[in-house]
Design goal:
Distance between the termini: 18 Å
Number of helices: 9
CATH class of the domain at 263-431 and 444-511: Alpha Beta
CATH topology of the domain at 263-431 and 444-511: 2-enoyl-CoA Hydratase, Chain A, domain 1
Strand content: 15-25%
Structural class: alpha/beta
Number of strands: 29
Shape: globular
CATH architecture of the domain at 263-431 and 444-511: Alpha-Beta Complex
Length: 547
C-alpha cells in the first residue's frame, strides 16, 4: 500500500441531493444495486488467477491500468500508471480491501475475472451487515473520478450564488427552499432593502420555467443550469415566494466563484441567567476554517458567555484536527490536557499499526494551539472552559461534527442535543487513486478517550421515541424554515434556550420523520441541496498543514 495518503471519511452515497429528471418530473433514485453474479466479461487467458481466500499484496497490482494516463495531475504529480488490464485493476481492489477495509472478514471473496468494470466490482467489496436499526452498516462506500477528487481537495472556488437549498418535496408539486445564505454573496445582496434569498424562500420558477411542475427534460435542464451555474458571470432569473408572504417577487442574480466560509454567523444572546454564545459552523474545511472558528470562539470568550450553542445542523464534517481544536476551545485545558480527542480503530489484522500507511497508530489529542492551517503554528487558542455545550443537530450533522460530540463526551463535557438524530458516521477512510478512479472504503472507526465510538445509528435527543442510537440529554425539534438562523425564535435555538433556563423541552413533533431530499442519481447533474456536498466537507479528513 502506498504511503503518504491521508484518512478521510464521508457519507456520500446518500447525499441529500435532488436530481430533477423528466418522465413526470420525478426525482432521481440511487443507482441500482450491483448484482453479486454479473455475466462474465470476455475470457482473458492472461493475467492473475483467482484462488478463493488467497490474497497477493495489493502493491503487485497497483497502477496496472487498462487505460494509462500520461503527464501530470492537477497538483503537478506525474501519473504513476503502467500498462495493465481491467483484471489487474480488479485484483488490486480485492487485495487492497482485504488489507485495509475495517470489516475485511465480512467481505465475500468474489472472482475479479467476473467483473468487466472495476467500479462495479468495488461496489460488492463491502459488508452486507446492518446496524441495530436495520440500516446498512456500511452506507458510505463509493468512488469518483480522481480528477474530481483533486479539484475538491484543492478547494477551488466554484460558480454559485452563496445559497444552500433543501427539497421538502422532490416530485411535482416540488417544494424547494433556501436554508441559508452566506454573507457578501449574490444570494444575500439586497435589492430595495430585501435580500435576494431569505431562509425559507421557496423557488417557484427558474429562467421562466415552472420548477414546481416542470416535466420535460429541456425544462429540467434549464432549472439545473440556473440553480447550479457552471461558470462565474452567468445571469439567471428566479421567481420566489418568501416565508409568510402572499405574493411572489422576481430575483436576478449573477453567479460568482465562491469559497463558502466555515462560520456563517455568530451572536451573543442576553438572558436573565447570563449571556449565551451562538456560533453557526457549516464545515470544518477548508484550511481557512481554523482561523474562522478560532476568531468566533475568541469573540465568545471576550463577551464572557456562560454557555455556548454550537449550530452544527448542516455541518457534514471536514478536518478532524480543527474539530479537535473546537473541542479544546469548548472544554479548556484542565479537562483536555493529555486526553485523546479521537483514536483510530482499524481491522482486527492491523494490531497497533495503521494498515494503510504502515505507521504507528497514534491518537489525535485535543489540539490547544494553532496548527498552521490558517492560524500560526503554536499560537494559543482561546477557550471557554465549559462543562456543558448545546449542539443543534440534524441527520446532516455527520462525521467530524459527530466527533466533536463524541470527543467532548469522552472528557465528561455534557453535550445537550437539540434537533434530530445525527447521521451516524463514526467511520473514515483514506481516499486512494488507482488508474483514474479514487476509491473510498471504510478503514477505521473513531473512538474517544473512553474508547467509545459505537454510534452508527447516530446521537439521539433523550425525549425521542427512537429505540436505536445513543441517547443524550436534549430535545427533539424539527428544523424551522420560518425564522432565520440565530433568531431567538427559531425552533432549535429557542428549544436550547428553554432547556438551558428551565430544563424542559417544547412539545415534540408528531412524528420522527425528517424531510429529506432524494439520493444522488449516478450520471445526472444533481441539485446541491445540502451545504458541503463536496468531498472536502463531508468527512473525517486527517490531514495536517503542508500535507
Amino acid at each position: 500500500m502506498a504511503t503518504g495518503q491521508r484518512p478521510w471519511g464521508l457519507k456520500f452515497w446518500v447525499c441529500f441531493t435532488l436530481v430533477l429528471t423528466a418522465c413526470g418530473g420525478g426525482g432521481g433514485n440511487p443507482p441500482p444495486p450491483v448484482s453479486p453474479n454479473p455475466p462474465p466479461p470476455p475470457t482473458n487467458n492472461s493475467g492473475p488467477t483467482w484462488t478463493a481466500g488467497v490474497y497477493e499484496s495489493a502493491s503487485i497490482f497497483q497502477d496496472r491500468c487498462e487505460t494509462v494516463r500520461t503527464g501530470v495531475d492537477l497538483e503537478g504529480n506525474p501519473f504513476p500508471d503502467r500498462g495493465g488490464s481491467t483484471l489487474e485493476e480488479n485484483f488490486w481492489l480485492r487485495s487492497w480491501t482485504h488489507e485495509t477495509y475495517l470489516w475485511n472478514d465480512e467481505v465475500v471473496d468474489r472472482n475479479p475475472a467476473n467483473y468487466a468494470d472495476p467500479v462495479n466490482y468495488f461496489g460488492v467489496l463491502k459488508t452486507t451487515a446492518t446496524t441495530p436499526s436495520g440500516k446498512p452498516k456500511d452506507d458510505f462506500h463509493f468512488s469518483q473520478p480522481t480528477e474530481e477528487f483533486l479539484k475538491e481537495r484543492n478547494s477551488a472556488p466554484e460558480a454559485e450564488y452563496g445559497a444552500a437549498f433543501i427539497a421538502l418535496s422532490a416530485t411535482p408539486p416540488r417544494d424547494i427552499r433556501v436554508i441559508y445564505t452566506d454573507a457578501g454573496t449574490p444570494a444575500s445582496d439586497t435589492v430595495m432593502g430585501v435580500p435576494n434569498f431569505i431562509r425559507g424562500t421557496r423557488i417557484l420558477e427558474v429562467d421562466g420555467v415552472d420548477l414546481v411542475n416542470a416535466d420535460t427534460q429541456a425544462e429540467v435542464d434549464t432549472i439545473n443550469d440556473g440553480l447550479f451555474p457552471q461558470n462565474a458571470g452567468e445571469m439567471h432569473s428566479f421567481v420566489v415566494q418568501d416565508p409568510g408572504a402572499a405574493t411572489t417577487r422576481t430575483v436576478m442574480m449573477i453567479s460568482e466563484d465562491l469559497a463558502p466560509p466555515a462560520v456563517n454567523r455568530t451572536a451573543v444572546i442576553n438572558t436573565p441567567s447570563g449571556d449565551v454564545g451562538y456560533v453557526l459552523i457549516t464545515t470544518f474545511s477548508p484550511f481557512q476554517s481554523e482561523e474562522d472558528i478560532s476568531d468566533a470562539i475568541a469573540d465568545m470568550a471576550t463577551a464572557g458567555v456562560s454557555d455556548l450553542v454550537l449550530d452544527l445542523r448542516y455541518n457534514g464534517g471536514g478536518l478532524l484536527a480543527i474539530s479537535s481544536q473546537l473541542g479544546y476551545m469548548v472544554a479548556g485545558a484542565t479537562r483536555t490536557n493529555g486526553k485523546v480527542f479521537e483514536r483510530l480503530r482499524f481491522n482486527d489484522d492491523a494490531g497497533g499499526v495503521n494498515p494503510v500507511t504502515g505507521s504507528t497508530n497514534n491518537a489525535s489529542p485535543f489540539y490547544s494551539a494553532g496548527l498552521g492551517f490558517s492560524v500560526s503554528e503554536g499560537a494559543p487558542l482561546p477557550s471557554l472552559n465549559l462543562d456543558r455545550v448545546f449542539i443543534l443537530a440534524t441527520d446532516w450533522t455527520c462525521s467530524a461534527s459527530e466527533a466533536v460530540i463524541n470527543g467532548l463526551r469522552g472528557v465528561d463535557v455534557e453535550v445537550i442535543l437539540i434537533g434530530r438524530t445525527t447521521c451516524g458516521k463514526p467511520y473514515g477512510f483514506y481516499p486512494e487513486d488507482n488508474c483514474g478512479e479514487t476509491y473510498y472504503t471504510i478503514q477505521f472507526q473513531g473512538v474517544n478517550e473512553k474508547g467509545f465510538g459505537d454510534y452508527a445509528d447516530g446521537f439521539v435527543p433523550m425525549n425521542s421515541s427512537a429505540s436505536f442510537g445513543v441517547k443524550l440529554p436534549g430535545c427533539v425539534v424539527d428544523d424551522d424554515l420560518d425564522h432565520d438562523l440565530g433568531d431567538e425564535s427559531e425552533a432549535l435555538l429557542a428549544a436550547a434556550l428553554q432547556y438551558r433556563e428551565f430544563g424542559t423541552c417544547p412539545t415534540p413533533p408528531p412524528s420522527a420523520v425528517i424531510k429529506k431530499a432524494l439520493a444522488k442519481e449516478q450520471g445526472a447533474r444533481a441539485l446541491d441541496l445540502r451545504p458541503g456536498l463536496r468531498v472536502m466537507k463531508n468527512n473525517r479528513d486527517m490531514r495536517m498543514p503542508r500535507e
